Amino acid sequence: MKITHVRNATMLLEVDGMQVLIDPMLGARGSQPPFRSETGDVSRNPLVDLVVPLSDLLHPNVVVVTHTHTDHWDAAAAALLPRDMPILVQDDADAGALAESGFTDVRVLTDALEVGGVRFHRTGGQHGSSEFVARYPKIGTVMGVVVRGATGPAVYLAGDTVLGDDVRSAIAAHVPDVIVLNTGEARLPDSGPIIMGAHDVVDVARLAPDARIVAVHMEALNHCVVSRDDVRRAAADARIDARLWVPEDGEMRDF
User: Fold this and answer.
1) Cα separation values, 173 from 15, 170, 187, Å
2) 8 Å CB contact between 89 and 101
3) Closest Cα to residue 146, out of 180, 190, 105, 189?
4) How many other CB atoms are there within 10 angstroms of residue 236's CB atom?
């Protein structure tokens, strides 16, 4: 299992010869307007360029879109990816949106399914506090996914979620070898954290003492307040840094 961190939540997994593209945000730096931010930062997104060649990302065997917020599925991905690409999504609404863009092989991941010998298991998620999700259910609806090949480690991509029962249940049920966490602690003006932050990395590492942790979704969006160094410091203080990888954009690791 090879994992290439592309940018934000975009990753490329190589599993048993299959390429799995996760949450493609492929547009140029500044191609999207800013999100509303607790800090008042009005920088356009994404904040950084792609450092992985775009040509390396346009012909995977399968795409996973955990939800269709524009930092996980943007206009560039919708324009550039092949129309017949198998794409796994969380619900009929997202499937319909992609079908309207001309994609012909969109599959709702209701529980588990297999593509090319690679198994995908859906997990739950909560994109913010219970109070926030109750107020904004369309924002709060997300999924995670566990990816398993015939060989190699099982990888749990938690997605845009806070640390709650969905994450704890997924770790207990799937016992993943590698856990990928979105840890930029994105904040809207009235939301509190809508994804995990540095302290959650430590808590998840303690929930899964045998797993290796990968922390991403940082330094690419105007409403994320936690940096890579914040996560590294928290991990070092908790003495779990030996199990942690905080990749730079474009960095690859073979698990």
Assistant:
1) 21, 5, 29
2) no
3) 180
4) 12
Q: H helices within the chain, ranges in order?
A: 75-80, 92-100, 130-135, 137-140, 165-174, 198-207, 228-238
The average pLDDT across 125-134 equals: 93
Percent composition of the chain: helix, strand, coil (DSSP 3-state, to 5): 25, 30, 45
Token pair of 47 as six digits: 């904040």
pTM: 0.97
Domain extent listing, the chain: 2-246
Q: Give me the residue label for tokens 């017949």.
A: 84
Which DSSP symbol is given to 45? B
Burial 173-182 (b: 16+ CB within 10 A, else e): ebebbbbbbb
183 near 201, Cβ under 8 Å? yes
Find all residues with CB under 8 Å of 229, minimum gap 6, and list them.
none
- Identity of the amino acid at 82: P
Indicate the residue type of 136. Y
Assign 138 a pLDDT band (cuts: 50, 70, 90).
confident
- Superfamily name with CATH number, domain 2-246: Ribonuclease Z/Hydroxyacylglutathione hydrolase-like (3.60.15.10)
190: its two tokens: 């009235």
